[in-house]
Design a protein that fits this description.
Blueprint lengths: L4 E3 L4 E4 L6 E5 L4 E5 L4 E4 L14 H5 L2 E4 L4 E2 L19 E9 L6 H19 L5 H13 L20 E7 L5 E7 L5 H11 L4 E3 H10 L13 H11 L15 E6 L5 E7 L20 E4 L3 E7 L1 H7 L1 H10 L4 H16 L3 E7 L4 E5 L3 E8 L2 E5 L6 E4 L8
Parallel strand pairs: 10-11
Antiparallel strand pairs: 1-2, 2-5, 3-4, 5-6, 6-7, 8-12, 8-18, 9-10, 9-13, 12-13, 14-15, 15-16, 16-17, 18-19, 19-20
Helix pairs in contact: 2-3, 3-4, 8-9
Length: 402
Amino acid sequence: MKRDKWCPSEHSFLCSRHFEDKYIVHNSNRRRILSTAVPTIFDFPTHLQEKQHIRPSPKERQNMVPVDVRTTTLVPESVPTNMELNSSEMVQPVMLVHGGAGDIPDNRVQQKIDGVCRAAKKGYAVLTSGGSVIDAVQAAVQVMEDDEAFNAGYGSVLNEDGEVEMDAIVMEGRDLKTGAVGAIKNVAHPVDVARLVMEKTPHVLLVGEGAKKFANDQGIPDVPVGYLVTKFAKQSLAQIKSGNGTPTSELGGVGTVGAVAVDTDGHLAVATSTGGTSGKMVGRVGDTPLPGCGGFADDDVGAVSTTGHGESIMRFCLAHTILELMKQGKFANEATKDACEAMTERVGDTAGAITLSNKGEVGISFTSRRMAWAYVTGENICYGIEQNDETCENVKSCKRGK
């Protein structure tokens, strides 16, 4: 049995039972994995029909009249209804990733979509084969750190001295355990070091040479100097120095990467990784490794990974803001959209974020021109990169990311 689902656009509370095939329900306020099986819908009391975003209380739900949506004929009250939530019921696992928000050029769109689909598939495979949510988000981010289409790991942008300095964070929602690294050099997977900080130290954040020394002490090998530097990153830095580019994290279409996951118990985790901003000062650390900014996970609410203009995200505490809006009753997609738009309105820069609630609600929004994202749940994979654009298909037949 799956959780009851609230559909604000229909003024209805959906009660799902014996679901089989899945489909995606979308409206301007939220996304949620639902089912093709016929649910029972309960008509709202009149006084609630003008309050689309308010969940009915248990008392109000008891007064709702069950309606068969196939015929809109009243179901006899003697028919059992799935009205009560079971605290032990399981959540549909979801693996959601992003590949960075920004002004992504047309010639890099396909690389981005393929990359996020590949990462989402990998993370979901880990999640559904016995791995933890931390294992899943780490695996998904590793895929993108190995892909030069993204500003993380191999593919990271360069600082003003032509070097790669990377930031990363991992966080799990049960105990709020967090590990992060800032301005780390010469490691292939900063997300791996962030996880080690979480599990092997009493600290949350290590930076620079200290982070590098810790990584080596834990058996993380150095990669050769220059190994992480790509031709594209060199071109981007040259543009900045010549005055023909803007030093943002999304210069030239590369971008911060992130992943959030929820398992059947509603346990959540997040991982975010980035090379920062092209042409940044040596030692600059952005929003990514800061809890509440580049990412946050809390099993009581949800998990968020952000991307965009780092200094603006830090000032606005974007990830934390999204979860606070969810605590106030907003659904994942609505909270993500409202927070990203509020940040852009307040500070004038763009951002994007992906969000999962502890019930599996999906939130995706960005104020930039484009943001690559993908998620897998059940037998479906959905992905997109443009505003208000989404493609969903069977994950087994999807050729993206192969």
